[in-house]
UniProtKB/TrEMBL annotation:
This is Salicylate hydroxylase. The keyword Oxidoreductase applies. GO terms for molecular function: FAD binding; monooxygenase activity. It comes from the Bacteria. Residues 4-167, 293-354 form the FAD-binding domain. Keywords: Monooxygenase, Oxidoreductase. InterPro entries: FAD-bd, FAD-dep_Monooxygenase_BioMet, FAD/NAD-bd_sf.
Length: 394
């Protein structure tokens, strides 16, 4: 039986561990935290991500926990339209819209799909990656784990990537970002005539919001509420969460409804501040041969990029779908070469779109006023272009 060690139990790691176990591999999943915790808040899965989930046999887990996101358009801070609702088709080749899902619900679905075959070890912060007895091995300074394949899914600051591709580092993208979900029981009333999904863009700042299910849907098996994500130029804020919340309320004061209502209903504990950045340069290869086996870099460990297109999780799922497909056909070293050959050009294409989106978001001051009509549409077109994925083999 072939064996794999998966490092990191985020979206990429959980999907990889489950996919390999279902394909007959003996899998050990290592996570730095003591227990498997979901990421907080929510995320959008684009049609390519849903398609990758389908390829992995996990799309069924989305039923009942995801809410379609309509093409809600983009407004200016004064409430006028930059892009009218429905002006850009976001449904991708498979004709379904993006969906928004609570990360805890997605986490539960992935855990359920792990099955009994995965040996989960919490409290293991991997520090080393090397070849041992002709196989790849990782360790935390106390225990070493070796296998035919090591999947590095340990996020943007990947310790495994640092060992394999030391020149590639996670660099700030010049933004700070916050996400929150306000559960329905304390979500604000949304003023009549205001959409439950939307986006407002101006002067380098961006505020997007979406509803997770319908008001009152909490209490079932899923976590409902109002989700929002705010992006602001600058570095991460050092203030405690109450101070960050006060800043957000000030920065977005006067922006159209329901932004003030959402920020007023947000509690400091709801806030998740996250760095926005990019792994640069991209590792030369996402598959490193080590003896008779090797290492695969997936998700943010391989190619973290700013969240402007909300593609990070979808790309991690694409990575895993490709990895699973090539490993079904080839021995590990050959599969890793094929994996990288397929994934590198795809990631470079999305990165290019992500940079276009960043250029739109960075437009500030007088320039913003003159370019505003052109650029936001570029943002939506970039998002739509990023959803075009040729499937696990290309
Ligand atoms: C503000 C914001 C909004 C976003 N919105 C979206 C969105 O709407 N849609 C979308 O698709 N993407 C979105 N993203 C990106 C998305 O969250 C990430 O791309 C995705 O979570 C990456 O998953 P991952 O499994 O690769 O890494 P992670 O989620 O970072 O998981 C890494 C795991 O590895 C563990 N770990 C780390 N180091 C070690 C170690 N040394 N040893 C063992 N374990 C370790 C961590 O504890 C963690 O569990 C957003 C990002 C931001 C910042």
């Amino acid at each position: 039986m072939r064996s794999a060690v998966v490092v990191g139990a985020g979206i990429g790691g959980l999907a990889a561990a489950g996919a390999l176990a279902r394909s007959g591999w003996k899998v050990t999943l290592l996570e730095r935290d003591d227990r498997l915790r979901p990421g907080r808040a929510a995320l959008v899965l684009w049609p390519n991500g849903v398609r990758a989930l389908r390829a992995l046999g996990l799309a069924g887990g989305l039923e009942g926990i995801s809410t379609p996101v309509p093409a809600a358009g983009i407004r200016r801070p004064d409430g006028t339209w930059l892009v009218q609702p429905g002006a850009v088709d976001l449904t991708g080749e498979i004709g379904s819209p993006p969906v928004v899902v609570h990360r805890e619900d997605l986490h539960d679905a992935f855990i359920a799909a792990l099955g009994e075959q995965v040996d989960v070890r919490g409290g293991i912060a991997v520090q080393s990656a090397r070849v041992r007895r002709d196989r790849p091995a990782v360790g935390d300074g106390r225990v070493t784990f070796e296998a035919d394949l090591v999947v590095a899914a340990d996020g943007p600051d990947s310790a495994v990537r640092r060992r394999l591709a030391a020149a590639s580092t996670f660099a700030s993208g010049g933004f700070a970002a916050w996400r929150a979900v306000i559960p329905w029981y304390r979500a604000p009333e949304i003023p009549a005539g205001t959409e439950l999904h939307g986006e407002v863009l101006g002067n380098g700042q961006r505020f997007a919001y979406a509803s997770l299910g319908e008001r009152g849907s909490a209490g079932g098996s899923t976590r409902g509420g109002m989700y929002w994500v705010a992006t602001v130029p600058g570095a991460l804020r050092p203030e405690p969460p109450t101070g960050q919340l006060a800043l957000l309320r000030r920065w977005f004061a006067g922006w159209p409804a329901p932004i003030a209502q959402l920020l007023a209903a947000t509690e400091a504990d709801d806030l998740v501040q996250e760095p926005v950045g990019e792994v640069t340069p991209l590792p030369e290869t996402f598959g490193v041969v080590a003896g008779a086996g090797g290492f695969a870099l997936v998700g943010d460990a391989a190619h973290a990029m700013p969240h402007h297109l909300a593609q990070g999780a979808s790309l991690a799922l694409e990575d895993v779908a490709t990895l699973q497909t090539v490993l079904a056909e080839l021995a590990v070293p050959a599969a890793l070469g094929e994996y990288s050959r397929i994934r590198k050009p795809r990631i470079l294409r999305v990165l290019q779109q992500s940079r276009k989106a960043a250029a739109v978001l960075q437009v500030r001051g007088r320039l913003a006023a003159s370019l505003a009509r052109v650029h936001p549409r570029t943002l939506e077109r970039a998002a739509a272009a990023a959803t075009e994925w040729g499937g696990p083999t290309g």
